[in-house]
Design a protein that fits this description.
alpha/beta, eight-stranded mixed β-sheet, 26 strands
Length: 830
């Protein structure tokens, strides 16, 4: 496979420098901490800060010197053990990387001089006669971008490299960095911690700041990827150059402040650039505007005077434990007895001063030395495994062991497995270590800024990996009183029954209220009407069936109707009894006794029908209502029409002759009435066949929560029956008017006229009211009152006078009066 331009340029670069080394050019670095041994482990550990002037200045922090001493301590601890590399003295050669690619590359090439067999010179055509390769591996450097640069150089010479802090995901690419391993988890896990913090507090709108270089760039890319996975929007994403001016940093802070709802800001940066950003925040007087979530590169804010800016923020750190043996060792170190060239500088700054304090017990847990110790032990166990395989049962190292290069050692490194200072140490296929993180909350306690552990994140945990103690968290921004924590969202969640209308980011939207009968669907992006007879529930997320509405027995109106109908029913029964008792009285016999009984049945049936109107609509009640609704009226008007026509015919014929007209006998009148009633029965029967009776649900207005249970009485059916009964009423009115002058004691044409006139008025009021009313319960009420009025008018106008006359008028007087009225009527008409 063809070499990439990068690899080719690296070969040329290393070749030129290698030629210089083989020609005995002086070293590029003069300061180192070293000890000779049978084999050597190299160290590229940053101690000083590389400033904007590209110079290594003062010590970075107290922890950097501890990492150097931790490497030395661990190597000496292995040298004293009998179970690991017995008889092999491990040396070391440690350089200050100064967190600079230039300085680290120079130190890298200095380390590569320890590759014997003159491998470096052989790469450019030189030669040599040494047989042993003393340099077996390198610890460091710390920064990801620097590690990426020197790893390519080490890879060209098959030199293994284990970092103690570089976490960029770029370095997981084994095709580009085959000899690179690390004793810390990669950034993708650290990003998972930060995203889990955001998710834990239900934040969905954040900003992002990252430093330039491999560490910041790859961390930012992973943050964007994971944020998209969980629906988290990034309002502003800004990259900070290590050489950025104050004006550029102020502009970045201004951009962050433009998105005022994005309170949470992830800062994935090295400490130097992070503190420059915090300086800009202080200049903008925005110290209480953000909730910072810092990567493991953001530390020691208080030392830079930025504790107030970071207060209340969350800062991710690798999980470390204390090492009591190391602490005991460190307490024995003195500048006059140590070969460490940087110890005097450390002593002068951190120990040899009037206001300095001795380190507290357990300080090693806060210095990040656990990864250094584990990295050295990875080499120790891997070299021991390789020695056993190459040298067999011999307790000492053989020549093959010393001659083995990194390509032989690499599989042993990847397969190393042991219990380290922080737990199990084992690499995955990318040479990455899975592990834990701690999340610390920067708080102002007892007059000083402290990082308080508030959460543990374990990549090997089942279920939720983040274990957060919310009670320990102290906030540096305003807290929402309703939820007890700050918000970092673009738009408030829409209330129930609303859909979201996105604008800009998917996390930003407006709320639009659905109609009363609609619910939000498709992730609250569309309003969907509920099915007929259904309505949104209280949560407005599902449609429930609507309980049907119908008039109930307990309703005040129903009680009123029942009382009136019952009173009418009692009156009609008493009337029937009165007619039965006095059926042979001349007055009763003269008023068409048989027709009167049919009318009384119709009136009684009307009162009974009111109870069916009020009853809950079912198949049985609807059959009765559909067939009996107009039948009770017809059974009242049919005999009434027959009676009034009979009266009219008799007295009209009496003017011309004494012969009685035909079809005026009782049986004839019953037959005629039955024919008239049969027409209504036929009409109702036909409609029952066309539209079978049943109880149906109706929703008069789809946007109102009302479903009515009623009998399926169609408008056409009502119109047909009403038209027929109106015809009967009109005919009754006509013939009653024509027979208005007949005697009024035995033939009640005037009472019939009064009854039908009143009934006509009732019907003229009933028909438009019933047709325009939409509420089925009100329709039942209107229909019931119309039926009751019709029955009471008939009862009062036609039957009460007869019963009164039967009880209070003498039959002989009535007969004399009847004869005189007949004679008077005959005289007038002649």
């Amino acid at each position: 496979m063809a070499s990439s331009p990068t690899s080719f340029s690296s070969v040329i670069f290393v070749g030129v420098l290698g030629f210089a080394f083989c020609s005995h050019v002086p070293h590029l670095t003069d300061t180192k901490y070293s000890k000779q041994g049978d084999i050597i482990l190299g160290g590229l550990l940053n101690l000083h800060i590389f400033d904007a002037k590209r110079e290594c200045v003062q010590l970075d922090s107290v922890s950097v010197l501890h990492r150097v001493e931790a490497m030395v301590f661990t190597i000496e601890e292995i040298n004293q053990r009998d179970d690991i590399l017995r008889g092999v003295d491990i040396g070391y050669e440690i350089y200050d990387s100064c967190v600079s690619e230039d300085v680290t590359l120079a130190a890298t090439l200095a380390l590569l001089q320890n590759i014997t067999k003159n491998a470096l010179c052989e790469a450019v055509g030189g030669g040599g006669d040494e047989d042993r390769q003393k340099l077996k591996g390198v610890i460091g450097p710390r920064r990801s971008s620097v590690s990426a640069a020197v790893s390519r150089v080490f890879g060209l010479h098959h030199m293994p490299q284990i970092t103690y802090m570089a976490t960029s995901d770029e370095l997981s690419d084994k095709s580009a960095f085959p000899f690179y391993l690390r004793a810390v988890p990669p950034d993708r896990l650290q990003v998972s911690v930060m995203i889990d913090i955001v998710r834990h507090f239900n934040w969905s709108y954040i900003s992002l700041v990252n430093s330039d270089g491999s560490y910041g760039k790859y961390g930012a890319n992973e943050i964007k990827r994971q944020a998209a996975m969980y629906g988290i929007c990034i309002a502003a994403a800004e990259e900070v150059s290590r050489f950025a001016t104050e004006e550029q940093l102020d502009y970045i802070v201004k951009k962050l402040l433009e998105y005022k709802n994005a309170k949470a800001v992830i800062i994935f940066s090295v400490v130097y650039m992070a503190n420059r950003v915090f300086d800009a925040v202080r200049r903008a007087n925005a110290t209480d505007s953000f909730i910072w979530i810092g990567s493991d590169g953001v530390y020691d804010l208080a030392a830079y005077g930025n504790g107030e800016v970071g207060k209340g923020g969350f800062f991710v750190e690798q999980f470390n434990t204390e090492s009591i043996p190391y602490e005991n060792y460190f307490e024995t170190i003195k500048p006059e007895s140590s070969e460490n060239p940087w110890l005097i500088e450390y002593w002068e700054r951190y120990r040899n001063c009037s206001d300095c304090q001795e380190p507290d017990h357990g300080f090693s847990a806060y210095m990040g030395i656990s990864a250094v110790i584990d990295a050295v032990y990875v080499y120790g166990y891997a070299l021991e495994a390789m020695r056993v395989d190459l040298c067999g049962t011999s307790p000492d190292a053989c020549d093959e062991f010393y001659e083995a290069d990194g390509q032989i050692l690499l599989p042993y490194l990847r397969n190393a497995s042991f219990e380290g200072t922080r737990g199990p140490v084992q690499f995955d296929e990318n040479g990455d270590l899975l592990g834990k993180y701690v999340v610390k909350n920067l708080q102002y306690v007892d007059g000083e800024y402290q990082r308080v552990v508030v959460a543990i994140w374990d990549s090997l945990a089942e279920g939720e990996k983040l274990d957060m103690d919310n009670g320990k968290v102290m906030w540096g921004v305003a807290v929402d009183e309703d939820i007890g924590k700050p918000k970092s969202i673009c738009s408030e969640p829409c209330p129930g029954g609303h859909i979201v209308i996105p604008h800009g980011d998917v996390c930003c939207w407006d709320c639009f209220q659905c109609r009363n009968n609609e619910i939000p669907v498709l992730n609250n992006t569309k309003c969907q009407p509920c099915q007929l007879f259904h309505w949104p529930n209280e949560a407005l997320d599902e449609c429930d069936s609507i309980p049907p509405t119908y008039i109930r027995w307990s309703d005040p109106m129903a009680i009123t109707l029942v009382v009136i109908a019952f009173a009418g029913l009692v009156m009609s029964i008493l009337t029937v009894l009165g007619y039965v008792v006095h059926r042979n009285k001349p007055l009763i016999k003269a008023s068409s006794r048989e027709l009167s009984f049919i009318m009384l049945f119709g009136v009684t049936f009307s009162f009974i029908m009111v109870f069916n109107f009020i009853a809950k609509p079912t198949l049985a009640t609807c059959v009765v209502v559909r067939l009996g609704l107009m039948l009770c009226f017809t059974m009242t008007y049919a005999p009434m029409l027959t009676k009034v026509v009979r009266i009219y015919r008799i007295f009209t014929a009496g003017k011309k002759s004494t012969k009685r007209p035909g079809m005026t006998g009782p049986m004839s009148q019953i037959v005629i009435t039955s024919v008239i009633v049969s027409v209504q029965v036929f009409i109702s029967g036909i409609w029952a066949i066309i539209v079978p009776p049943d109880a149906t649900l109706e929703m008069p207005i789809e946007t109102e929560k009302r479903v009515e249970l009623s009998c399926n009485i169609g408008a056409d059916e009502v119109s047909t029956s009403v038209a027929y009964n109106l015809l009967l009423i009109v005919l009754c009115c006509f013939f009653a008017f024509k027979a208005r002058r007949v005697p009024d004691n035995y033939n009640e044409s005037r009472f019939i006229a009064l009854s039908v006139y009143t009934t006509l008025v009732v019907w003229l009021a009933f028909i438009p009211t019933y047709s325009t009313v939409k509420d089925s319960s009100f329709k039942v009420t209107v229909l019931s009152f119309a039926t009751l009025l019709n029955a009471f008018v008939t009862l009062v106008c036609l039957y009460v006078p007869k019963l009164y006359a039967v009880h209070f008028v003498n039959d002989e007087n009535a007969r004399i009066r009847f004869v005189s009225q007949v004679n008077s009527t005959a005289t007038e008409r002649t």
